[in-house]
Amino acid sequence: MPKTPLPKTPVLSAFRRIVVKVGSSLLVDAKAGSLKHDWLASLATDIAGLHKDKRGIIVVSSGAIALGRAVLKLPAGALKLEEAQAAAAVGQIALARAWSEALGAHKVAAGQVLVTLGDTEERRRYLNARSTIAKLLEWHSVPVINENDTVATNEIRFGDNDRLAARVATMMSADLLVLLSDVDGLYDKPPSQAGAQRVPVVQRITPEIEAMAGASESATARGGMLTKIEAGKIATTAGTHMIIADGHVPHPLKAIADGAPCTWFLTPANPVTARKKWIAGSLEPRGALMIDAGAVKALRSGKSLLPAGVTKVEGAFGRGDAVVVRGPDGHEIGRGLIAFDADDADKIKGRSSADIAAIVGFPGRTEMIHRDDLVLGGE
């Protein structure tokens, strides 16, 4: 699908393939225990308008557990894992029906796609999921995607649909990811504080931007903005722009198109290749490598990560797993696929590549992470 060149100030009409993430609180009235039909109908109208304009629209929707709880009339409070999974089994039917009816009112077919972490972390399953969603788009349907809560466990689940939406956006080479939220963007300090300013455009996610995210929401929802920033890292590194916008208003996508307040996260000038999109979007890094300033400079000049530049090894990972690479200040500078398991990586850190065979007992790669297996922030 050809992409329209973007103006300096992005507008919704410039994008051809859009992923829209909808959270449970937008879809389900927790107090009444029912679906917000009028709001969903307004969003479906927006989606149908974009769809009619020949834009590919993908929805990532939460709400299965919340709807299942309402249908089953479960008491308030935290659910055990098996209870949440059973509630999701009931709620997923209601959620799929709601989306099918809302989009069907505009003669737009909805296709349900349930995914687990393995569907994006394992390359073959990743490609299969991508092909399925691509075929739905080819058939002019709207894929409605959710984590498969009926089988996902606490150990393997995505944990939040912001990052799931970012993963889907990168998988499908989307131009834009829209996170419909409880707030209308990223603020430089808690919005309730006097003088708080919304950040209209984020050119690059820096440690300063991450610090803002940690202070952008209330104590009860503090993690929400942090996961959105994590989603932004995944999306923008892979060449997908992102918006955080207020989802509580009627017709939220039309509001964005009409210039409603929001925060845009822009992509770098040189988006990465398809393989590196997969690496960058890895949601469950198994460990981390701390590296020195010299190694940071070498990586940014296009070189591989050698053992000599590694100062600390964290986590229990195996050869080929995704790991985070952090600079001397502890901030993430990239992610890559490690060429050694954790024990051997710890043994060779800080050492010359020529010493690897003698230390680990077998000849291996001279690089800890090869440049082809590494994605830096801003690439």
Describe this structure in words.
It is a single chain. By secondary structure, the protein is of the alpha/beta class. The protein has two domains: 12-276, Carbamate kinase, CATH 3.40.1160.10; 285-376, Roll (Archaeosine Trna-guanine Transglycosylase, Chain: A, domain 4). Helix content is 37%, strand content 19%. It has 14 helices and 15 strands. The protein has helices at 24-27, 37-52, 64-72, 81-104, 118-121, 123-138, 161-171, 207-214, 222-237, 252-257, 274-280, 293-300, 342-348, 356-360, and strands at 17-22, 28-29, 34-35, 56-61, 110-115, 142-147, 176-181, 201-202, 241-246, 262-265, 287-291, 310-315, 322-326, 332-337, 374-376. The chain has an eight-stranded mixed sheet, with helices on both faces. A five-stranded mixed sheet has the order 12-11-13-14-15, with helices on both faces. A hairpin with a 4-residue loop joins strand 2 (28-29) and strand 3 (34-35). It starts with 16 loop residues before the first strand and ends with a strand. The model is unreliable at 215-223 (pLDDT under 50).
Give the tags.
379 residues; alpha/beta; Carbamate kinase; Archaeosine Trna-guanine Transglycosylase, Chain: A, domain 4; eight-stranded mixed sheet; five-stranded mixed sheet; 14 helices; 15 strands
